[in-house]
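tool_log.txt
---
The assistant was asked to compare two proteins side by side. It first ran the structure predictor on the initial sequence, then on the second. Raw inputs and outputs are pasted verbatim so the downstream comparison step can read them without reformatting.
(1)
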Amino acid sequence: EKLLEVKIWSDDQTAPEELAIYHQFDPAQFGPFVAYSSRQNGYLPVPAAKVQQLSNALASLRNHPVLPQGIGLVDRVLLTTWSDAGEPRQYAFVRENEEWRRNGSKDALVGMDALIWRLGTLQTDGENGNSAPQNPVRLMRWDFFRHNSSAPVLVLSFSNEQDKDGIKSWVQVGADGPWFPLQSQVVSEILGH
């Protein structure tokens, strides 16, 4: 029985490294737990205490969308917001000589690096990214670009949803990726409210 599976992607890899832990795979040969690693391409016995440590560590990550390292290395940002009538408004920002500017402006924009850092430290309220808002109200979408790329390296979409407990905020990681529930004050901070 497979207990858990972890896939780790690196920028230079075409496939992720994989680690899987099994329970009762072959207890006579390996004991109660065995791990399979694509890096070593073989099975290894794992002590129960190590399985518990890994389970605890992964549970603490489960409540965080895992954003790519180096989000602070982006040099262009496209922000789309929507009016109450649903009309989109777009704002483009570029980093030039270590300063952010609104596209077409000569004035430096203060705080963009701090905002990007804040987006990179988002914590979610949810257990996983398997659910999605039922009736979302689009708030904003951030497209992050690096090194003159035409495709964004990351897309974050934020939505609110009214439910029986009040307004619930959501973030979608990737253009078609999973949705994660967010702490509502995070969206307020990002919007500057």
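(2)
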Amino acid sequence: QKIEENYVYLYKQKIKSLVDFKIQDFDIQNNRMSYLLEQELKKRIYTIYRTVRIIYNTYYTIKTPLEIKGILKKTIKSIYWQHQYDIYLISPDGDYIAFAKNQDLLNMVKLVDFPNVSGDKIIKKILNRVQSHDELILKYKSIYQNPDKSINNEGLFFIKRLDAFGWLIASQDSFAGMTNKLRKEALKNIYSF
């Protein structure tokens, strides 16, 4: 019985140490949240960027620009449906297509770089800023008004210029979304032990 008690005690200590380690790891990850979110957004957009370039280079000599644009939009839409992250396709004249759960998100955010601008004016500011950069990270604060509560959500937009048709491609995610992802990974690691 003493051996059993020692085994249970050691097992509990081992689990406690693992949980403490994961909590410490989570705190470290939390401090790097902005960096991790930026890397995640870049990974998304670079993948889409490479896909768009391949499609454009494959078809630019055999299809019309309108046909190529249609193929690109369908491809981006299928990427959205497959991965369920928000993707914005912005044309040089300021029109945009949102492949997103919330189609009107750009009218509900305040970009930290442009705090007094909203809606279509945000697009114009982004277009002007991207003229001198190939890619851009913008922090946003989004306030969702709800009769029951107001949720203040912060996150990042990553915007990259596409050579094809002068478009911009963007994706966004919140810090809360990244925190949830890290929590799920930590729990998965704990349960796998």
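---
observation on (2): The CA atoms of residues 94 and 123 lie 6 Å apart. Residues 2-31 form the longest helix (30 residues).
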